Amino acid sequence: MATRSRWLGSALGACSIIAAVNTVPSAGAVAATTTTPIKHVVVIFQENVSFDHYFGTYPYSTNPPGEPPFWAEPNTPPVNGLAAGLLTANPNGANPFRLDRSQSATCDQNHDYTQEQQAFDAGLMDKFPKFTGTGGPGCPDYGYGKNLVMGYYDGNTVTALWNYAKHFAMSDNFYGTNFGPSTVGAINLISGQTAGANPTDQSGDTVQGSIIGDPQPTGDTCTTRDNVKMVTGKNVGDLLNTKGITWGFFQGGFDLTITNPDGSTGCKRTHASAVTGVKKGDYIPHHEPFQYYASTANPTHIRPSSVAAIGGSDAANHQYDIHDFFDALAKGNFPAVSFLKAPGYQDGHAGYSSPLDEQTFIVNTINMLQKSRDWDSTAVFIAWDDSDGWYDHQMSPILNQSNTTADALTGPGTCGQAASGAAEGRCGYGPREPFQVVSPFAKTNFVDHTVTDQTSILRFIEDNWNLGRIGKGSFDTLAGTLQNMFDFGRHREDFERREEANRRLCLDPSTGEPTGCY
């Protein structure tokens, strides 16, 4: 078996990849016409964060000695964050509090479909410690117990994300498409449709044919427990294939031929976070949404026929390891649409990863993209799959109501009153989450208030490449637009004349502070 060290957290590996990007001519060949100047969309899809958990006090940081500082520009717009009353007289019976950079390792909160609705309490947003809070023995809760769920970070810990917000565009009105954990968000990202699952009723995983939990995909050679298969409908991969657009889903640990530095290999490749000390599998099956669909699955993790074939149609079926994305970028065959999923220890999931781990992954990735020759036609979307149950004060607009045994938003078994013929088990929108656009075409220091959700990313891809809609109940028909976060009226010459920091913002992966794109 081949041995590949984990380069993403390595400065030496990062430099070698960057050098390759700068010396290999870009293929630059996306033949299809796009409706915007964006020829490459990269979706960095992280784990388990609510908006208030990362941006509740934006743009104001505490800036204690010894931590990376963040200073807002004088014209930085406000966000719908934690107003004074919510900080000092919160209806949850516990006030939100700042988690220090040294407290970046925390335990995972409860983010199940039912418990998240119970925490919302029909829009009162006052039962988070009771229903989603997790703390106690064996959990790094810093003495807060279940009130840990009220904790938030500021620009001294999630420094890179705050710097991206200052220089590019962010949303304070972006939501998970439905309530529930990782698989729900991952499926919504690519199809906007969690219904059509088999088995139809599997405790904690599916209800009346809709996925509400984290079942693993049937047939994936790495699946180890209760599993489910999507048997109906299409996803965005099917639409891209129809138009011949290059694309791929790139996830840490998908390449089973590699042996990690710790000796782990195959489905059991692992890394330990230096922050949390927890060893976690690189590949997490229920984070890979395309594996739930027969049309886009690569159940045995077949490798692409060559680096040049990445993004095209071969036996790998567009499903790859995260290193394949950077290999393709270095060789100049950058896919038009790329979904990136970090290896477990860098995906930001509380309990085994941390904000500092995910900062390393996000910053190294965006730094490399900004040094590629395709940067001036690229848009990076930074999004998260669910809220992890972390407190957020904003009630979501409920566009789809549901009445199943798992619903609880407005009472036992109810999320309002489901419309006749509506897909059950799809109460949503769910909790509010962060969302950012990093691109030469992104507006600068801009906060978008348009109501958007995970399927807004899907809709942007559909519209940019004229793919049409998924159909059959997909929420892509309801999705708000991301267009307001861009300024497509600028000409290329304008970018060349702008200051480098406004066009490219390379950051230090450890501190999140600007370093310059060398």
Keyword list:
20 strands, 9-stranded mixed β-sheet, 13 helices, 21% helix, Alkaline Phosphatase, subunit A, 3-stranded mixed β-sheet, disordered N terminus, single chain, 518 residues, alpha/beta
Account of the protein in words:
The protein is of the alpha/beta class and 518 residues long. It has a single domain, classed as Alkaline Phosphatase, subunit A, CATH 3.40.720. The protein has 13 helices and 20 strands. The strands form 6 sheets. Strands 2, 5, 11, 15, 16, 17, 18, 19 and 20 form a 9-stranded mixed β-sheet that branches. The chain has a 3-stranded mixed β-sheet with strand order 6-10-9, with no helix packed on it. A hairpin with a 2-residue loop joins strand 7 and strand 8. Helix 1 runs parallel beside helix 9 and helix 7 packs parallel to helix 11. The longest helix has 16 residues. The chain is globular and about 60 Å long.
Quick overview of this protein structure:
With 518 residues, the protein is α/β, with parallel strands linked by helices. It contains 13 helices and 20 strands. Strand 13 (270-272) and strand 14 (279-281) form a beta hairpin.
